[in-house]
Amino acid sequence: MKSQQYLKHIENQWLALEIGNSRLHWALFVGESLKSTCDTEYLPESVIQQLGNSQTNWGVGSGKKGIFSTFLPLPPASYPLPLFIASVVPKQTALWESYPDVRVMTLDQIPLKNIYPTLGIDRALALWGAGMTWGFPMLVIDGGTALTFTAADAEQTLVGGAILPGVGLQFVSLGQKTGQLPQVKMEEITSLPPRFALNTAEAMQSGVIYTLLAGIKDFIEAWLCLFPDGKIAIKGGDRILLLNYLQTLYPEMASSLIVEPNLIFWGMQKIVMATK
Is 245 annotated as a binding residue? Predict the structure, then answer.
């Protein structure tokens, strides 16, 4: 009986992989429940092939260290776990085609209405995950490599959105594409810079950060004019940085935001469970 229960538990496990512009983002689900997440660098093809081996230990079990160490809090499966992929990097997606039980998610699987063909799967999934969890109308702000805004109305119809360079990308562009400007590192920014700076590095920080925050504020205000009962969720690697700045400048607005880093995984979960 115990063995049968264990096998049933293992069969409910599945992995979600978001292939982002700079890293891989992983989630382990047991049925509908999100059990753990982790981020890794891109993996070599040899490691990907190893993960498809039925003898590979993904996590920690039987006293042996697995590929992701403590990523899986449960005993390792004796066969490759089902893997669902959402990717914005086609070259990386191709490396996973050899994995035995892999399904790559596409836009036509997402029930949002009025989707256009070039909409990023990450934006669509995050919007679907947020809307299905907290309700529509929903605006999702993603503070990642790119800063994006993606919204849908109460009928789950895509309203549209916007894309611009994120915080780090703007600093990299200024440092690499100009002859005299220094490279500003994100870890050097610990608080809001002076708006009118008296040195070059802080002037760059001021220009990037204050205009980004003003842009976010403007999009939120425009969204609430269109949909006064609309909800707003924020995700992405820079979400905490942006949220802290928004709390300093616009505390009431910041307090209304839903902060959830796993929106894409929740979007994947809704679709996977709907197909079972």
Answer: no
- Over residues 64-82, the pLDDT tens digits come to 444 454 444 444 444 578 8
Distance from C-alpha of 158 to C-alpha of 180, rounded to nearest angstrom:
43
Please check the confidence at residue 62 and state whether its pLDDT lies above 50: no
Q: For the segment 175-208, what is each residue's pLDDT rounded down to a tens digit?
A: 999 989 999 988 878 889 999 999 999 999 999 9
Report whether 25 belongs to an annotated binding site: yes
Write down the catalytic residue from 39, 122, 153, 218: 122
Q: Do 208 and 215 contact (CB within 8 A), yes or no?
A: no
What is the rounded CA–CA span in Å between residue 112 and residue 114?
7
Instruction: Decide if 122 is catalytic.
Output: yes
Surface-to-core class of residue 250, CB atoms within 10 Å of its CB (0-12 exposed, 13-18 middle, 19+ buried)? middle
- Across the chain, mean pLDDT equals 87
Instruction: List the structure tokens of 21.
Output: 């512009």
Query: The tokens of 77 are what?
Result: 């499966």
Residue 207, marked binder:
no
